Amino acid sequence: MNNKAFKGTGVAIVTPFKSDFKVDETALRKLVNHLIDGKVDYLVILGTTGESVTLTKEEKVQVTRCVISATKGRIPLVLGIGGNNTAEITHQLKNTDVTGIDAILSVSPSYNKPNQEGIYQHFKAVAEASPLPIILYNVPGRTGSNMTSETTLRLANDFKKFIGIKEASGNIEQCMRIAKNKPNDFLLISGDDNLTVPMMAIGAKGVISVVANAFPFETSEAVRFALKQDFEKASACYFQLMEITDLLFADGSPGGVKAVLKKLNICEDTVRLPLMNINKTVEEKLLALIQKMQLAAV
Q1: Cβ atoms of residues 67 and 56 within 8 Å
Q2: pLDDT band of 276, cuts 50, 70, 90
Q3: What pLDDT is attached to residue 1?
Q4: Backbone angles phi, psi at 28, to 5 degrees
Q5: How many CB atoms lie within 10 A of CB 100?
Q6: Are the C-beta atoms of 109 and 126 separated by less than 8 Å?
Q7: Per-residue pLDDT at 291
């Protein structure tokens, strides 16, 4: 599958849980159909938004197989396999059944705080172990360290296995350096919903979104306008989502987006510890904004 499959709107899908904290396959299938009906371009399974760090190995397989089954080949699928133990991640890549998966999303190592050479060598090992193309993921706010533009470009030029990067550093200058110097077929992808339009203005080709779990059509429409270089219409679409997106992260993610999905009757808002449901003040503001948005659409 070529890199064009990952232009547009990708969704870091939540993992729905029942009230007893077991994976809710019925709700997961409902979510997949909600997203495909909303015209998103691809799905990302077992990312941060999917609470992957709280899932057992067996549950990860369960979630992955359920999404593959529900998708029925209609859009591409990306599987999150990343972490801070290089040997364990390369073992997973070599031994995971990736039938039905089109690419891997692999996050820069967290907690260890490796230097840039350590990050490079980690991803070199990942590239050599992976049977599929890889989208790098830089999210310093969660990992505790930043993958610089120099390291990203070095990886992009040294290994064809890397087809893009989900950039969630919030550093537009860093993203501009990637956009300016990257190989032509290497994708810059926004990892921040509210920075998607400005990032696409400098050369990003889409987003891996959280808010699109709840508002797939609105997000996809904005990205489609941006891909056509119509940034006025793209901005207008995103402006209606900005306050909602801010509140989705105000008291922990994916608690915020799960609260919205519950309001939309797609899944429960259950999250696993150490995450908690969002507080009532944030929830009330969030649901009021959604009601206002729904009324405006009538």
Answers
A1: no
A2: very high
A3: 64
A4: -65, -40
A5: 15
A6: no
A7: 86
Phi-psi group of 126: left, alpha or beta (phi > 0 → left; psi -120 to 50 → alpha; rest → beta): alpha
What is the CATH code of the structural domain delimited by 3-230?
3.20.20.70
pTM score above 0.85 = yes
Q: Average of pLDDT values for 226-230? A: 97
Burial label for 201, CB within 10 Å (0-12, 13-18, 19+), is middle
Separation of alpha carbons 47 and 202, rounded Å: 25
- pLDDT tens figures, 39-57: 999 999 999 999 999 999 9
| Residue 13 main-chain phi, psi, to 5 deg | -75, 145
Q: Which amino acid is at 94?
A: K
Q: Where are the domains of the chain?
A: 3-230
Structure tokens at 71: 């998708």
Residue range 63-101, pLDDT digits in tens: 999 999 999 999 999 999 999 999 999 999 999 999 999
How confident is residue 295, by pLDDT bands cut at 50, 70 and 90? low
Identify the residue with better confidence: 162 or 290. 162
CA distance 138 to 210: 16
In angstroms, the CA 290 to CA 298 distance is: 13
Distance CA 205, CA 290 (A): 27
pLDDT of residue 294: 73
Spatial distance between the Cα atoms of 196 and 198, rounded to a whole number of angstroms? 6
- Long-range contact list for 61-70, CB < 8 A, 24+ apart? 61/97, 62/23, 62/25, 63/15, 63/23, 63/28, 64/101, 66/23, 66/25, 66/28, 66/29, 67/13, 67/28, 67/32, 67/43, 68/99, 68/100, 68/101, 69/29, 70/28, 70/29, 70/32, 70/33
As a whole number of angstroms, the distance between CA 234 and CA 244 comes to 16
Given the DSSP bridges, would you call strands 77-80 and 8-12 parallel, antiparallel or unpaired? unpaired
C-beta of residue 80 within 8 angstroms of C-beta of residue 93: no
Residues 6 or more apart whose Cβ sits within 8 Å of residue 114: 122, 145
Active site residue ranges: 137, 166
